[in-house]
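[Q] Does anyone have a clean structure-token version of this?
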Amino acid sequence: MEITVSIHQANEPVAVMNIKGNVDASNYVEIVNKAQEVYNNPVHNLILDLSEVPFISSAGLVAIHKVALIYSGGKQEVEQEGKETRPDFTHNANARKRVKLLSPQPGVDRILETTGMKLFFKVFDDLDSALKSFQP
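[A] Here you go.
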């Protein structure tokens, strides 16, 4: 897997993280680490370009989830009395505003649809539309 990042200017800077290759348990941490690095840069808007990802495993879905947690900018865990803490971004609109998905290949798109991930992320077919979505 290979990751490249480019910065584009919309209303605010937007990082486009292009991922090439399969995303699975052997490499998903690289995506999370790179997203954290970009967020700390600081660029707080991200487009995950999945156009060159032919396959994504459950570990890859975890990577997307963790990236959303990073870009939510808020508290990343929900504390529950007497229970372990669990990350929660499903109710965080900021994560959905800050992270967009670009051009998933058909197989990856089916996995995102089947798992319900497409309910939480806006998915775009072209970079221009994705960048414009960050405009107020």
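[Q] Thanks! Anything notable?
[A] The two ends are 34 Å apart (CA to CA).
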